TrEMBL record:
Keywords: Membrane, NAD, Oxidoreductase, Transmembrane, Transmembrane helix. This is Short-chain dehydrogenase/reductase family 42E member 2. One of its GO terms (molecular function) is oxidoreductase activity, acting on the CH-OH group of donors, NAD or NADP as acceptor. It holds the Pfam family 3Beta_HSD. InterPro entries: 3Beta_OHSteriod_DH/Estase, Lipid_A_modif_metabolic_enz, NAD(P)-bd_dom_sf. One of its GO terms (biological process) is steroid biosynthetic process. Belongs to the 3-beta-HSD family. The chain crosses the membrane at residues 302-320, 385-404.
Amino acid sequence: MVQNKCNGVMPNWRQPSDYSLNGHVGAVLKRSKKAVVTGGGGYFGYSLGCALAKSGVTVTLFDVQKPKWKIPNGVVFFQGDVRDYDAVFKACEGVDCVFHSASFGMSGLEQLQHKEKIESTNVGGTKVIMDVCKQRSIPRLVYTSTVNVVFGGSPIEEGDEETVPYFPLEKHVDHYSRTKAIADQMILAANGIPLKGGDKLHTCVIRPPGIYGPEEERHLPRTAKNIERKLFNFKFGNPNAQMNWIHVENLVQAHLLAAEALTPEKGYRASGQAYYVHDGENVVFFEWIAPLFEKLGHNKPWIHVPVFLVYIAAVVMEYLHLALKPIFHFTPVFTRNEVWNIAVTHTYRIDKARSQLGYYPKKFKFADCVDQYLKTRPKRRDNYMLFKVLLAFCILCLSLLCFFF
């Protein structure tokens, strides 16, 4: 384990935009003694930690990797694995709120690798967090879940927390969604358990869709690379299929409000509750990412491919990944889960978060994030990697030809 505090600006490091507390996230949160953010080395966890520190809370960012951005005053980084009870226990000394955002296997290549690691991190790590909260008498636990705990390819229109059930665990096509659903239920079931000091644990769950924002490193860069490699020049699925997205600042706001709503001053109103949160609007995926095509100098896709062909291609890509794994790793254009996320409507109401938490999402433009990405992204180094991607794509095409003919 390594504890490290850094107050200087490291050369060439980039820091996401400043995150400030809204006025309605008030004195209750600011009286918090100390908070731990698991997954604090990642984009969202780091952003949440910065917002907490700005409010005067002492923050520990807990992760296996250090954030690449400047660590501000009031924040310490604790290097450790969420599956390691001793490390988590040590990091949580004197803490009165844990934000559990650490996870593994969300998308792309990561989604296809290390199923054991996905389960041990998302399920095993969550159990460790709950056990530490119990032993350390930490009264509040906010969990970062995902809308994929209820979505698995069947349409959901304006779903809410009370009427949309969990998607059957055995029917999930990806291990990430399945394990997040298990952890989501574990967190809610842990609400009200007695703590060592005699108090009770108060838990809640935040369920966001895909995250975007300045310096986001998962969705936007991968999509941009596929556009530039001309691997994303077609549409598929229902052309009117809608989905939600959330800007990182809105997701930070939701977590801060949830933590405040787990206090006695707020009547523990969020205790044992789950909340869908997003930017407050439904969008069509290919319309929403249009600014990325435009600013990269590429035409928007106009060819429409039947979704079943894309799904079959995703299946083949996943098997190709397994077959070629001993030789090299390549990131599929889409996984099966990602095909359904784009092709099938799944939208959610945020009325509950508005009424119980006071959540009011700010308005942001995806185009602004694209501009920031293009200004700050590293120089492309496609050469051999591009060759490998194209080779895998050719193998995919040959496989599809064999399948149909």
